[in-house]
Write a structure and sequence with these properties.
Helix content is about 30%, strand content about 45%. By secondary structure, it is an alpha+beta fold.
């Protein structure tokens, strides 16, 4: 017969490990975007996952290849794009499913376009054979500024 205290500790440890894995998934998303590594970005998604960006720049893709292609298209006009992920919450909805919300700030610059915003990602995660992946990410703008800003774009060195 199993010790209930040990079972409870194992369950709590699994929940901590799962939450850390999900938080790492979110961090890897931001890193892949900032480093423009679309191959790494594609590996973060469940096979039938959906990535959606809401108004005013509404766009949506379903499936790993379509999601990767969407990211590549979003990069094209930008000489600078940097995403910062801030605080977030993770809520488990089942043994292999969870939801999350993460606050984002982005800054981008094209040849003559400027972009700065605050937004919230609303996430659905699913655990599969390769660990936790995004099943759905919905980007909800909360603030957008397209006015020109000052500063120098410094090319990436690595």
């Amino acid at each position: 017969m199993r010790n209930p205290e040990k079972q409870n500790l194992e369950k709590r440890m699994r929940a901590v490990e799962d939450e850390l894995e999900i938080r790492n998934l979110v961090a890897r998303f931001t890193d892949a975007v900032n480093e423009r590594r679309t191959d790494e970005f594609r590996r973060l998604w469940a096979e039938g996952g959906t990535w959606e960006i809401g108004a005013p720049f509404s766009v949506k893709a379903t499936g790993v290849d379509a999601i990767g292609n969407m990211l590549e298209e979003l990069f094209k006009p930008k000489v600078l794009f940097l995403q910062l992920t801030h605080s977030g919450v993770v809520m488990f909805t089942g043994d292999n499913t969870a939801k999350g919300r993460f606050t984002e700030r982005e800054r981008g610059k094209g040849e003559s376009e400027f972009y700065e915003n605050l937004a919230v990602y609303h996430d659905d995660y699913i655990r599969g054979p390769n660990g936790w992946r995004f099943d759905r990410r919905y980007y909800e703008y909360r603030f957008l500024d397209t006015n020109a800003f000052q500063g120098q774009v410094i090319p990436r060195t690595r």
